[in-house]
Structures are given as structure tokens and as C-alpha cells.
């Protein structure tokens, strides 16, 4: 009646609908219900444009992706008359007043719609009731990674989309343009990965309490760049193993040199292994890099054990020789090689005098010995320098233990064979 109309106009609590809402007759319909409620499921087409893959985290086993998510469906309740057959575009204010699909990301950890400078939401309505709903979203989702071949691995991740409330009896999700529904930016790149492929697929998900749901998959394969790990892990490990082989060419009686070299390489390998493990998740299986580093660590450790065996066997041999020789003037005779190990200088046995005899003569005639020793020591030094040039290499080679001789060949050969098998298996 005229009175009710007048009272409705005078009611200040009523918010007058916008012109767009009047044109779409939003107040005439109940948009809490899906389009075609009670009939066949409403088809909702999806297409996605991936803007960027922001990060891949091995520790958290997830990835972060920014994308444009677009929905297509038809709602005849939003149809309107248009003489030019033009669509109308709206922002996020109208979204809250109409029905939109409740698509969510399965296995999502966190996600958000961008809101700078305004909320990145777009709604476009066509005269026949077809609707386009677009969002710009950043989402972080789980990626179940397998690190058994790390860092020579390829990871397959997927972002899954599904309706939260409407099962397959009410809503049917599908890729709008088939395999072409998924597009990517040409400039997408990652620091540690090369993106091999993007693909779209679909399937069904079952929940015991609510039934079957349509699910869409955004699949992408990531192949890891290995050059970084070659420089940071593999190459230093190779150098440490080869450095440990230097010990086999050092005289077996140079205990400080060989022990310090062995301990240094062992500690360096331990540091490399610790650094790699700190940047990786604590998985219960062995990774490819673990195989290489621990085998390299074993080679370095065995080089230390090899010298321990050489030193032990050398000590036993010297004891046997000393027992055969007996004692001379209350002192064991010191040969040239032993003296070189003690003072770091080469000693010629034909020139150097016996230490005990030299000490007695010095006590008997100090004055004459001092004058004689000057010329004698000078002559000895000249002879020692001459003999040093030609005999040091021969003396060291002759006094090397047989274990050192075999180790110079066996260690490098076995390590090379291991590298052939390793790289052939994992590449």
C-alpha cells in the first residue's frame, strides 16, 4: 500500500542498494543457495596463470607460489538486459552479496589474497548470467619430497584445488580449457631448481563423512641445479681425499707431519658433512650426498689408520734390529734416517761421527778439538749438502714401508672406481 511504501522510504536503517545491485536484482534472490539448487550439479570451470614460484624449502618441505585463480560459472539470477551485450565488471564489494564457489587449496599451510593497493579481486558478469571471478593469491603448500637422490634429485610437487562444502552432487570442478587452462610466466626462475614442466590434471577425493569431491591438480617438476653443490660439497671432499694421499709420500718416521696431515683432513671432512646436514631436513634414510661424503670420510680415515699400521710395524722392526745389534758404549746406535727424523736434517753416515766418541774427544782436548772441529764441521757441511741433493730421494724411497708403496696405488684406484660407479648410478 501507499502507506507501507512511505514508511519504507522514511526508514533510515535501510541501506539503499547500489545501482549495480538494482540492475542485477540482488535483493530478489537468495544467494545463500547455489545456482540451480535441487537440480544437477553446477559446473565451475577453473583456469590458473602462475605468476611466480617464490621459494622452495627443503627443510619445511613446502613451496610458495603466486597465481591468478579464475572461476567460470553461470548464475541466471544475475542475468540482466543489455542492448549492447556488454559485461559489467565489479570489485570485491559485490562478492559478499552473491554466491561464489568455495574453492580452497588442499595441504595449504598459509595463503592470502593480495590487497595492495586495493583487494586484488575482480567480478565480471555477462548479460546471459555467465560469471568470471578472478583472484590474485599467494599460497604456501606442502610438497612431499624424496631426498634419496639429493642433490641429484628431481622433485614433483602439486597444488590441489577443491570445493570445501559442495561435493560432486552439488558442484563439478573442471579445467576450463583442458590442458591449456594452466599457463605460466616465461620469466619464472629459481636459484636452485630448473622447472622442467607444468601440467594440469583432475581426480576425485573421498571423505568418509561427506562423500566424493572433485579435485584439480597443478603439477610441476623441479630438477635441481648441481653446480652449487659441486663447488660447496663434492669438490672440497675430493680435495681432502687427495690431500690425505700426500701422507703416503712422506717419510714414515716423520710422525708429526703425517699425524697432523691426517687429523686435519679428518676434521675438515667432518665440517663439510656437518654443514650439509644442517641445511637439510632430518630424514631417516640416506641421501646421495651422504653416500659420497661418508665414503670420502672413510678414505681419509683409512689413510690415518694406514699410517698407524706403518708406524707400529716400523717400531717392531727396529726393536728386532736393535736386539740383534746389542748395545754399543751404553747407547743405541742412531742411523741416518732416525737422526733426520729427530732434527729435520739429512745426516750422511760416512761423515757424521758417533755421538759418544765425539763427546769423549771434546772433553779430553777442548782447545785442539775446537780448532779442528771448525774445519771438520765445515767439510762435513759441504759433503752433506752434496750428498743431500742426490741421496735424499733415494733414502726416503728405500726407507718407505711396503704398506705405503701399495697405498699409493690402491687408494687412488679404488677412489676413482667409486666415483665412476657413483656418478654413473645417480646421473
TrEMBL record:
Q: InterPro entries from the entry?
A: GABAA/Glycine_rcpt, Neur_chan_lig-bd, Neur_chan_lig-bd_sf, Neur_channel, Neuro-gated_channel_TM_sf, Neuro_actylchol_rec, Neurotrans-gated_channel_TM, Neurotransmitter_ion_chnl_CS
Tell me the domain of life.
Eukaryota
Q: What membrane topology is given?
A: Multi-pass membrane protein
One GO CC annotation: chloride channel complex
Work out whether the entry's keyword set contains Hydrolase: no
Q: Cellular location of this protein?
A: Postsynaptic cell membrane
Q: Where are the transmembrane segments?
A: 226-247, 259-279, 291-310, 409-426
| One function term, GO molecular function aspect | extracellular ligand-gated monoatomic ion channel activity
Residues forming the Neurotransmitter-gated ion-channel ligand-binding domain are 26-225
Q: Is Lipid biosynthesis one of the keywords UniProt gives this record?
A: no
Entries under Pfam families matching the protein: Neur_chan_LBD (PF02931), Neur_chan_memb (PF02932)
Catalyzed reaction equations: chloride(in) = chloride(out)
Entry keyword set? Cell membrane, Chloride, Chloride channel, Disulfide bond, Glycoprotein, Ion channel, Ion transport, Membrane, Postsynaptic cell membrane, Signal, Synapse, Transmembrane, Transmembrane helix, Transport
Q: Which PROSITE patterns match?
A: NEUROTR_ION_CHANNEL
Q: Which residues form the Neurotransmitter-gated ion-channel transmembrane domain?
A: 234-324
Q: Which CDD domains match?
A: LGIC_TM_GABAAR_rho (cd19059)
Family that this chain belongs to: Belongs to the ligand-gated ion channel (TC 1.A.9) family.
> What is the official name of this protein in its record?
GABA(C) receptor
Q: Which organism is it from?
A: Chauna torquata (Southern screamer)
As recorded in Swiss-Prot or TrEMBL, the protein's gene is named Gabrr3
